[in-house]
Amino acid sequence: MLVLDQATVGRLLPIGACIEVMASTLTALARGDAVLPLRTVIRVPDTSNAFAVMPAYVNDLAPVIGAKVITVYPGNLETAFDAHQGAVLLFDPATGALAAVVDATAITTVRTAAVSAVATRVLARGDASRLAILGAGVQGRAHLFAMCAVRPITSVCVWSRNSARAQRLADTAQRALGIGASVAAKGEDAVRNADIVCTTTSATTPVLCGDWLAPGTHVNAIGACTPNAREIDSTAVVRSRLYVDRRESALREPGDILAPLEAGEITASHVVAELGDVLLDPGAGRRSAEEITLFKSLGLAIEDLAAASFVYAEAQRTGAGVPVALGGTRNEAH
Known about the structure:
Elements: E1 2-4, H1 6-12, H2 15-31, E2 34-35, E3 40-43, E4 50-59, E5 63-72, E6 84-91, E7 98-103, H3 104-123, E8 130-134, H4 138-150, E9 155-159, H5 163-177, E10 180-183, H6 187-191, E11 196-199, E12 218-221, H7 234-239, E13 241-244, H8 247-250, H9 255-262, E14 271-274, H10 275-280, E15 293-296, H11 301-318, E16 322-323
Parallel strand pairs: 1-7, 8-9, 8-11, 9-10, 11-12, 12-15, 13-14, 13-15
Antiparallel strand pairs: 1-16, 2-4, 3-4, 4-5, 5-6, 6-7
Helix pairs in contact: 1-3, 2-3, 2-11, 3-4, 3-11, 4-5
C-alpha cells in the first residue's frame, strides 16, 4: 500500500491535468459507467460539524473502486486546520487489496475547483473575462487559478467577510497571474460587473442575490452542501438555467436548491442537465449570450477517486509516496 500525503498530492495533481480528469469522469457518469450511492453523513451533535463516507466505483479508462472518508469542520476557518480533512482509500479492483491512502484535503481542494472549471468551460460565454469570487479561503484561491485555466480572465474582484484574507487573494492574483485585482466592500459590488461568479464560502445564509447578476453571467456555487445551508438566494436559482454534477444529490442535499423547491418557486425540472450530459451533448448547455447559467456543485465520490487514481499512477511512475506493508495477504497463522 502507498501513502500519499498532502504535499505529494499538491505536487502530482496540477489544476490543468485535474480539469481533464474531471471532464472524463463526469462523462463516464453520464454514460452510466459508474456506481455512485448517496454519501452517508453523520452530524456531530450540537455542532455544525460532520463526518461523511463517500463510496463509488467508476469505469473510465480503468476501473477504480474506493471511498473518501472525511470530516467537515466549518469552524476550522480561523485555525491551523482545513475545514475538510480525511483520506481517499483506493482499492485494487482485481484483488480487493487496499492500494493507496491519499490525503483528502488536497484532493478535495483541487478537484472541486477543477469541476467548476469544467462547468465554466462548457457553460460560460467564451469571452467571459471579469471574475468575482465571494469567499477568500482555500477554495477561493483554488477557483482563482481554475477559472484562469479555462477563460481569458483579465480582472478579479474579491469579497470576503474577512477583508484581510480578501486582500491576500487579490494580491495573489496580481503577483502570480498578472491580472488586475481588487477587493469589494460588499458582495454586490464584486458581482455587479462580473461575467463569472464563484461562491466559495462556508455561509449558511445567502451571500449572492439573483438581482445582482447581469445577463450572460455564469455562476459556480460550491460552498453549501446541506439542507440548512445556502450561499445563493432563490432569485438567483429562478433566474438561471440550473446545472448540477448529479441530479439525485442536488434534489436531496443542498439548501440552495431545496429552499426554492419547497417554496414552490421551482420544480425538479428546473435542473436542466447534469454536467456530464452537457459534455456529451453541448447543445444542452448555454443557448444565448444573455442567459444566466448556474452550476451547483456538491462534489462526488467518483471525482475524488478519479483524482486520487491519477495521483496514485503518477506516484508509481515517479517513485513518490511512502510504501506501507499493511497486510491483506493470506496468512495461515491467522
